[in-house]
Amino acid sequence: MSRLIVTTSWDDGSILDLKLGELLTKYGIKATFYIPRFSKRITPMQNIDLLELAANHEIGAHTVNHAHLTLIPQSDAKAEIEGSKFYLEEILGKKVKMFCYPFGEYNEDTKQLVKTSGFSGARTVKFNGLKDIPILMSSGLLLPPPITNPMKAVKSLGTHRLFRSSRCRIGKLRQKYCLI
């Protein structure tokens, strides 16, 4: 029997992610929360909140300022990517392995910056077909895009209809995955 790996991810580090983390933990669902240091879009978490969330879930980097990485100079993009990794590792006291491209925007330069910054993998919210998913981990794990509508997913948790199963084929890889 093949092993099915389910992963969920959540962007932007809203203080509301604490409640979401509690619900996911209650139902035995692991998640990765991608946290920028600063964001104009949401009420951000404090350091103590990050530590609480990290007790049961993975924390991933999401730049320092939720920056449009493809629209800024490469030196600024590098500072955004590396700065967010450093910021989170200082708070959490452990390595941050995953990255998510803000706004789903990436190109070959930003992908290379993420790789050279020491991340094991990265995600995007862009999902225009399986060929556009840029994340295939060295372990063979294919990561679906992060969840962009947390409230819809939280409501689904209450009715126990969180996942629907799908299959994909990329080259010779055949992988099951779940999307919300």
What kind of sheet is the major sheet?
3 strands, parallel
Number of strands: 7
The poorly predicted ranges are 128-142, 153-180
The first-level CATH class name: Alpha Beta
Named CATH architecture: Alpha-Beta Barrel
Topology:
Blueprint: E1 8-11, H1 17-26, E2 31-35, H2 47-54, E3 58-61, H3 74-92, E4 98-100, H4 108-116, E5 121-123, H5 150-158, E6 164-170, E7 173-179
Parallel strand pairs: 1-2, 2-3, 4-5
Antiparallel strand pairs: 6-7
Helix pairs in contact: 3-4
List keywords for this structure.
alpha/beta; 180 residues; two-stranded parallel sheet; disordered C terminus; TIM Barrel
Structural overview:
- By secondary structure, this protein is α/β, with parallel strands linked by helices.
- It has helices at 17-26, 47-54, 74-92, 108-116, 150-158, and strands spanning 8-11, 31-35, 58-61, 98-100, 121-123, 164-170, 173-179.
- It has one domain: TIM Barrel, CATH 3.20.20.
- Helix content is 31%, strand content 18%.
